[in-house]
Design brief:
- It contains eight helices and 16 strands.
- The protein has a seven-stranded mixed β-sheet with strand order 5-2-1-6-7-8-9. Strands 10, 11, 12, 13, 14, 15 and 16 form a seven-stranded antiparallel β-sheet that branches.
- The model has no long low-confidence stretch (mean pLDDT 97).
Amino acid sequence: MKSKILFMGTPDFAKIQLEALIDAGANVIGVVTQPDKPKGRKMILTPPPVKVCAEEHGITVYQPTTLRGDEFAALLDSLAPELIIVAAYGKILPENVINYPRLGCINVHGSLLPKYRGAAPIQRAIIDGEAETGITIMYMDVGLDTGDMLSKVSVPIEADDNFETMHDKLAEAGAKLLLETVTALENGSASREKQDDDKSTYAAKIENADCILDFSCNATEVFNRIRGLSPFPLSVASHNGKALKIIRAELVDDKKSHDNPGEVLSCDAAKNRIEVACALGSIAVTNLLPEGKSRMSAADYINGRKIAVGDVLAKYSK
């Protein structure tokens, strides 16, 4: 992999792609990432994971506030990349950037396109109860994840997977596929496949409304929403007028109907389970985050006498 590669990415998902390229000896001539942002209660200015990785390997980092205009165009001319690789960069690329490199501008996307185009493909696939998702590497174009596909790999979604575990699995699968795809581009063996727009779905960014649990849904839907939003931003219910975020749960039953969805059916500290009724079936909460508290086990919440059989977890509203 000797072509001059400009890498563009920001979070941990992108960092894993960059690390794979570096470990394979790719000629990464520079990294473009988002500006440092304040984080935590003290709002400490923190560099994105991709920046940290690049600097550890002596790769020059660029953090432009915009990719549009003469300044970034001049940077492209000075670097003269032959291939641009994008992974979770966080901004839409203008056409002049997409069309610059001779080998193309490619993107590592966390779904089996054309399904789940957009900002939150991993979370949405889990929430929707998909049995599998995957990675698609595609040429970028001016549309939103609409470019011709170069390669794909499927990754099963297991019953105990959540957003975190699938993120990590897909990042690793993407890194392996990326190396294979770059090699194919360089030796001329890569082929492209148009997406079928009629089969496309959109994975919108996760908003606060997506996090609200509704126990009048069936237990499988509630369970999938919990794991699709864990470990962040987390799904939320209301308990005694306060927010109760659910970190982890188990599917107990998906057939028995209940007249009072959200009712606490049992509290078992020894088994670390708070069973909650859904309209159809029930779930068992095992880890949670009460408002104003730290993350804790269900057993600790029970032992603290914060919940009892007959309590109701309602839809949360501020």
